[in-house]
Amino acid sequence: DAVSVTRDTTAINSTTTTTTGTVTNSTSTAAAGQNASNTYDYIVVGSGPGGGPLAARLAQAGFSVLLLDAGEDHGTDYTIEIPLLQTAASEYTPITWQFFVNHYADPTVAMEDPNFTWKQPNGTFWVGPNPPAGSTPLGIYYPRASTLGGCAEHNAVVALYPSEDDWDNIAAITGDSSWAASNMRQYWEKLENNQYLTPGTDAASGHGFDGWLDTTLTDLRLILNDKRWLSLLQGTASAMGNTVSTALLNTVSAISAMMITDINTDAPGRDNTVGLFQIPLSVTNTTRARSSQRNLILNTASNRAYKLNVQLSTLVTRLLFDQSAKTPRAIGVQYVTGSHLYRAAPGSENATETGSGSAFARREVIVAGGAFNTPQILKLSGIGPKAELEHWNIPVVLDAPGVGTNMQDRYEVTVTGSLPTNFPSYTGCTFLKTPGDPCFEQWLTNSTDRGIYGTNGVAFGSVFQSSGASPNETDLFVGGLPADFHGYFPGYSAAADVHTFSFLVLKAHSRNNAGTVTLASTDPRDLPLVNFNSFTVGGDLDVQAVYEGVQLARAMFNKTITPDGPFVETFPGPAIQSEDDVKAWIKRSAWGHHASCSVPIGAANDTSAVLDSDFRVKGVDGLRVVDASVFPKIPDFYIVGAVYVISEKAAAVIIEDAQSS
Ligand SMILES: Cc1cc2nc3c(=O)[nH]c(=O)nc-3n(C[C@H](O)[C@H](O)[C@H](O)COP(=O)(O)OP(=O)(O)OC[C@H]3O[C@@H](n4cnc5c(N)ncnc54)[C@H](O)[C@@H]3O)c2cc1C
Fold first, then answer.
1. Model-level pTM?
2. What does the similarity note say (predicted)?
3. Mutation to probe ligand 1, out of 640, 643, 644, 646 (largest number of atoms < 8 A from CB)
4. Hey, how many other C-beta atoms are within 10 angstroms of the C-beta on 241?
5. What does the pLDDT look like over 546-563, one tens digit per residue?
6. What is the CATH number of domain 1-95+146-209+309-406+530-534+596-661?
7. Tell me, what's the pLDDT at 661?
């Protein structure tokens, strides 16, 4: 087979020591170790939502592409396929990269977070204050996935299209009208395979029906058949001023009528519409299994018509440049091979490098390692703030002060309430922890009703405008799931239960851009230092918005009367009530999981903007970045839809460039 997905990289490694072979290279002189078999038109580093679709599209356009990822392929493992197991997926050892980040640079402030984690002298984690003597502070746990598909393989499958301002803002900053919202929707139409609307109808406008990302909605029978869910729906609606009796919510269509069924509509006014909605999920309707770009990559790689080579278990350590011309040119990458080499991977201390090598790009190298790893790769390769590179004795290829700056995230907190008994719809579910899990059997075998495992557990959500929101946009999401969830710490997914309900309050369009990614060493297997410097910019307005979200979540609980009585708030709990106390608690403990914007696009004359509007690293040739790092401002409520869209846009831009050169 000419194309393959390989975990064993022996074939490629061996070519790095071979000097024979013809190199067709119109753009750079052949570098040491370069030959025909390790040279491609494009090299893409990272198979996540940014890199994966792009690599496939470039191959489909007739180019030879090498797609490298440090992880393995686990996409058919049930923990990943089953949407309800999303939290378990985020801690699934074969794919997880455990980052520990700082919300605050000041350790005293940082350690006030109840999720602050330490490593004990015996090597295990300690979460919270008063760790045993000799423990080392780590920070706040931040799960990432290193695998074929990146974080799309462990995320919560919420698939939202961003707001128009998210795109128009990039067009305004850069002066590049191709970023205008009116032009961007086509990429969503191209990638989506919508399975909840009817093609050709008005509602279908702005949607795609033959793309690679399957989208569907939660099966409303879940709510209909579980009185506790019904009461939560009724309580949520009531807190929003829409009082209905649960007795009338006796059919799926009655439940559906209470909600905006398509939050992803392109109808005017969508971005500032307050309301209750069903959540679009990246899930395949027939199987109720996770959908992502992984299938697109695999289908393209296994198609003999295309030249996509996917090489896994390959950690890129450095980009290679030809510096003979005035402008340095990216010509390839260096890598090491082996499983779980990066020190964020559990067990990395026992991992061994099985090889090392280089690969070369005739046209371009595209970095898509995600918001933490892309700045790290660039800096290790000599592209970053000069002073930082010199501090680490890294030869400067390009002084790019914006690399690893401007990083952004949401602010999220939960309000949780408990009842003595479990949600009825979870009865019997053992989350694959025992053989014969009936909920798993239903998901696997019942083609007409896959049951609770076919959802992500979030049956509906609501969006609001906080008092400080832009008039054009809603900026608060409140939605929940049966789980005792209050942020990320090692083991958080195992600590979940299903007699507690967590209302997640998520602040979109957050204002803080003071986050940084800096090197902690020059070893590419080490993690960088990730500092969010939370609430530094626009903090008061954002705290106020989250506070308003907490009030809403509390009102929703208060209006919810289940057949088993009212929920009793367990977190933040009765002790945290006054506005000052709630706000202090938000500042102490808000988290995020949409890290982005760390290698931003910006205006040509903005020295803090690393990329031009065509994803090119300004000041070098042959190098682009295409992942969550590229946004100047964090988009939307949930980010992956926006990352998929920019991946498709980048493919179009790069193909057009190649065809016109
Ligand atoms: C727990 C959790 C739940 C989430 N849920 C949602 C959700 O429901 N909806 C939503 O919209 N968003 C969600 N997200 C966020 C979303 O999934 C990510 O923002 C998105 O996947 C980012 O895409 P990316 O391409 O930038 O990077 P990633 O998805 O991080 O992919 C980067 C890839 O690059 C590889 N890589 C990195 N460095 C190297 C290197 N040096 N060499 C080789 N390979 C490398 C990694 O192995 C990885 O596979 C969630 C995130 C988390 C953590």
1. 0.95
2. Belongs to the GMC oxidoreductase family.
3. 640
4. 6
5. 999 999 999 999 999 999
6. 3.50.50.60
7. 82
Q: Is the CB of 45 under 6 A from ligand 1?
A: yes
Q: What residue ranges do the domains of the chain occupy?
A: 1-95+146-209+309-406+530-534+596-661
Ligand 1 pocket mutation, candidates 87, 151, 213, 522, criterion most atoms within 8 A of CB: 151
Which pLDDT belongs to residue 12?
27
Angle at 392 between CA 400 and CA 48, to 5 degrees: 60
Burial label, 155 (beta-carbon count in 10 A; 0-12, 13-18, 19+): buried
Burial class (CB in 10 A: 0-12, 13-18, 19+), 578: exposed
pLDDT at 457 over 50: yes
Asked if 45 and 367 touch (Cβ cutoff 8 Å), the reply is: yes
Work out whether the CA dihedral 304, 647, 385, 638 comes out positive or negative: negative
* Confidence at residue 249, expressed as pLDDT on a 0 to 100 scale: 86
Cβ–Cβ under 8 Å, residues 101 and 590: no
Task: Tell me the per-residue pLDDT of 333-387, one tens digit each, with 9 for 90 and over.
Answer: 999 999 999 999 999 999 999 999 999 999 999 999 999 999 999 999 999 999 9
Rounded Cα gap, residues 151 and 368, in angstroms = 12
User: Taking residues 81-108, what's their average pLDDT?
Assistant: 97
| pLDDT-above-70 percentage for the chain | 95
How would residue 3 be classed by pLDDT, with cut points 50, 70 and 90? very low
Would you say how long the chain is, in residues? 661
Residues 6+ apart with CB under 8 A from 394: 379, 380, 382, 384, 522
Residue 31: what pLDDT? 75
Query: What's the token pair of residue 638?
Result: 């949930």
Contact 352, 369 (CB under 8 A): no
Share the mean pLDDT of the chain.
94
Q: 645 is written with which tokens?
A: 């869209």
